[in-house]
Amino acid sequence: MKPTLVILAAGMASRYGSMKQIQSFGPSGETIMDYSIYDAIRAGFGKVVFIIREDFAENFKSIFEPKLKGKIETDYVYQSLDAYMGKHTVPAERKKPWGTAHAVLCAKDAVKEPFAVINADDFYGKDSFKKAYDFLTKEANDRTYCIIGYELKKTLSENGSVSRGVCEVDENNNLTAINERTKIYRNEQGKITYEDDNGGLHEVSEDSPVSMNFWAFAPNVFGLIEESFQKFLDENINNPKAEFFIPILGDEFIKSGKGVIKVIPTSAQWFGVTYKEDAPVVLADINKQVEAGEYPKNLWA
Predict the structure, then answer these.
(1) What's the CATH fold of domain 4-291?
(2) CA distance linking residue 114 with residue 116, whole number of Å
(3) Which listed residue, of 30, 56, 74, 227, carries a Cα 20 to 30 Å from 9's Cα?
């Protein structure tokens, strides 16, 4: 059974100010997502499931269906606020989606095989998809999931600080914690630094493995997410800003002894559009990869 790629594309792109998921970056108008799907197909994935907003569906399908027809199976899932709420009802003041783990839960009926989850607007690189495919076809099971770990130095922005989940691992490279560092940047001395809530500065190793939200799961994870989401709602239903993120689920999975999450290192260069000013850099980086022969000039020709 070929693994599936689940793409989180329902985000509101608040920081960036536009639907960056469909912005053109490649020489033939390719989006960042196109490169992820292309890399997934060549790694061996059999299906792609897009998690999108329903009001954006027609526009979205008109962009992706013509390109992908006959190349990979596609499916679409809508993340709606009232999905999988159980005994809870959506509070009137709640406007934003419930977060990335809830988005994955919305794909429960569309995904029956081992699967990877990625962000729509991040460029992950060929090596990551190959490693995720190998893991999903050889190692993934009900007690073993994984996260692709990027080298921190390969994930920074030249245009401001970034938030990164810095992974702590044990001697077997299994995840023990993800520490959310919300203000990471390279300082004037060239050292990577993070600023804590009190303004304190801490140096971070260049090679620290960080999560860029590239996960790989066995399908039993849906039951765990559903259970965890009910607990989250019990505690956070009236907090309009609370979000149910995948790392919350990961943390619960390892701390409750339900299983392990392997951190699989990649040397791939990550890039993404955190700030509007990042767009030309991503454009140039993708063009460099095309010129180096990593990707064809037209992915879907």
Answers:
(1) Spore Coat Polysaccharide Biosynthesis Protein SpsA; Chain A (3.90.550)
(2) 7
(3) 227
